[in-house]
């Protein structure tokens, strides 16, 4: 009889433990509509006056910036929609005065962007539409006045824009289970501290995860009120279940510790099989006008591409402490460039050259990642990414490949001390890449090893 009871108790504990870990695989991140907006302003200036033996030097500069961001997410059984938009701007001015020279400059930069992904679900299948649009406008003017070249003025302009559209179909869904993860960490902490009168059922643990999701995705502008709301919403769950032995300061400090100081990276759960097509266009235009010297430059870069991708991604939370992610994809790429560079002297063409490279590429890529979460403070991540395929660039064809192996450790020593380490190796063969000036070039084959380590101490 005792053996039978012991076996039943063991099976119950194992089933309860399995159910808790299984919640990470079955949790559904649901929020009707969440929005967040933020603005940042900045600026500064400096002035210096020096009096060396050669004469007086005076310099001064000022700058300012404005950035705005908007984020929105909707996650229901039938739709997953995320949107992120931003606009960044900056301006600056500077001047310098020397005994035989004066310089002045002004600059302005504006960079807007918008990206969104919309997935519509029916049973286990989905239809996807997404877009990524960004641009940048930069302009600067300068004036140089010296004994050799008096009253030299110049203007530099650069305009960039990029637009890509994603169309896809597939099966499955990837869920964000970070809130469920923290719910289980909180439950484990309360059990270890003997703060609960009974064990929570899997359904109740799922409710706790949903309560944390609601708390984190309710828009409250005042940061202090938002902190209070998150604590109250989570505490309300335990009060309604009537499972607390005490609601003292130690209990609330435990809530605060996990809800606001857990640094575990976002975790996903689920399997996704997909087919996507992504056409894209990119354009850059550069103008450099130097008057009265009269040397002008005009450059233009146009890119048109199409990516076809079919693959499978699997994100598997094995347990609260372990996560395995892996996937495989077949990619087909067509990439057509046109680059034009023109130089003028006194308004007349001096030289001109153009490039029209075309890249055709097919590759098979795989990835594997294992993450370890010993507690809410420490992360160990090991990953492998590899890609191999065949490409043709202006009738120069051949096989290519890359492989990346890395390990990342963020180890919690204490609340004031943290150890970080990043190490790994990269290998590439016969790879093409774009330079800063949007030129497609063949990169040299290489193998690279790297290792970085550090200790962060907050006093």
Structure description:
The protein has 459 residues and is α+β, with helices and mostly antiparallel strands. Among the domains are: 178-261; 366-459, no CATH class. Helix content is 19%, strand content 62%. The chain has helices at 2-26, 178-192, 202-216, 223-241, 249-261; strands spanning 31-50, 57-75, 79-98, 101-122, 125-146, 152-172, 175-176, 268-291, 295-316, 322-345, 348-355, 358-372, 379-393, 396-414, 417-429, 432-434, 440-442, 446-457. Helix 2 (178-192) crosses helix 3, helix 2 runs antiparallel to helix 5 and helix 3 (202-216) packs antiparallel against helix 4.
Sum up the structure in keywords.
459 residues, 19% helix, 62% strand, alpha+beta, 16-stranded antiparallel sheet, disordered N terminus, two-stranded antiparallel ribbon, globular
Quick structural overview:
The protein has helices at 2-26, 178-192, 202-216, 223-241, 249-261; strands at 31-50, 57-75, 79-98, 101-122, 125-146, 152-172, 175-176, 268-291, 295-316, 322-345, 348-355, 358-372, 379-393, 396-414, 417-429, 432-434, 440-442, 446-457. With 459 residues, the chain is α+β, with helices and mostly antiparallel strands. β4 and β5 form a beta hairpin.
What is the topology?
Layout: H1 2-26, E1 31-50, E2 57-75, E3 79-98, E4 101-122, E5 125-146, E6 152-172, E7 175-176, H2 178-192, H3 202-216, H4 223-241, H5 249-261, E8 268-291, E9 295-316, E10 322-345, E11 348-355, E12 358-372, E13 379-393, E14 396-414, E15 417-429, E16 432-434, E17 440-442, E18 446-457
Antiparallel strand pairs: 1-2, 2-3, 3-4, 4-5, 5-6, 6-8, 7-8, 8-9, 9-10, 10-11, 10-12, 12-13, 13-14, 14-15, 15-18, 16-17
């Amino acid at each position: 009889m005792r053996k039978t009871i012991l076996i039943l108790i063991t099976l119950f504990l194992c089933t309860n433990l399995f159910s808790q870990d299984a919640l990470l695989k079955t949790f559904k991140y649901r929020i009707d509509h969440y929005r967040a907006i933020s603005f940042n302003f900045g600026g500064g200036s400096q002035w210096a006056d020096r009096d060396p033996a050669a004469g007086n030097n005076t310099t001064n500069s000022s700058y300012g910036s404005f950035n705005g961001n908007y984020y929105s997410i909707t996650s229901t059984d039938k739709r997953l929609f995320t949107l992120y938009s931003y606009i960044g701007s900056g301006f600056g001015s500077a001047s310098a005065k020397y005994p035989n020279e004066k310089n002045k400059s002004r600059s302005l930069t504006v960079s807007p962007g918008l990206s969104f992904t919309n997935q519509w679900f029916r049973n286990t299948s989905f239809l996807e539409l997404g877009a990524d649009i960004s641009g940048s406008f930069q302009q600067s003017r300068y004036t140089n006045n010296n004994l050799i070249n008096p009253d030299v003025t110049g203007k530099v302009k650069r305009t960039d824009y990029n637009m890509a559209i994603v169309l896809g179909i597939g099966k499955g869904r990837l869920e964000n289970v970070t809130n469920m993860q923290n719910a289980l960490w909180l439950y484990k902490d309360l059990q270890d501290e003997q703060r609960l009168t009974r064990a929570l059922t899997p359904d109740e643990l799922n409710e706790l995860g949903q309560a944390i999701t609601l708390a984190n995705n309710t828009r409250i502008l005042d940061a202090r009120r938002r902190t209070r709301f998150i604590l109250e919403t989570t505490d309300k769950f335990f009060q309604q279940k009537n499972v607390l032995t005490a609601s003292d300061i130690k209990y609330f400090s435990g809530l605060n510790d996990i809800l606001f100081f857990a640094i575990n990276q976002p975790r996903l759960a689920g399997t996704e099989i997909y087919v996507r097509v992504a056409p894209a266009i990119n354009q850059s235009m550069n103008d450099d006008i130097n008057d009265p010297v009269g040397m002008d430059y005009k450059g233009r870069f146009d890119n048109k591409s199409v990516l076809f991708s079919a693959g499978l991604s699997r994100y598997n939370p094995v347990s609260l402490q372990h996560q395995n992610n892996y996937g495989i994809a077949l990619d087909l790429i067509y990439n057509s460039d046109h680059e034009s560079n023109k130089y003028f002297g006194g308004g007349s063409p001096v030289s001109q050259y153009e490039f029209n490279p075309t890249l055709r590429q097919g590759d098979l890529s795989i990835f594997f990642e294992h993450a370890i979460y010993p507690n809410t403070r420490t992360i160990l991540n090991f990953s492998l990414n590899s890609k191999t395929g065949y490409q043709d660039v202006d009738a120069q064809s051949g096989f290519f490949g890359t492989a990346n192996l890395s390990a990342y450790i963020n180890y919690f020593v204490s609340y004031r001390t943290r150890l970080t380490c990043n190490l790994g190796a990269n290998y590439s063969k016969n790879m093409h890449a774009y330079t800063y000036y949007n030129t497609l070039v063949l990169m040299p084959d290489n193998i690279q090893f790297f290792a970085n380590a550090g200790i962060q101490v907050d006093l």
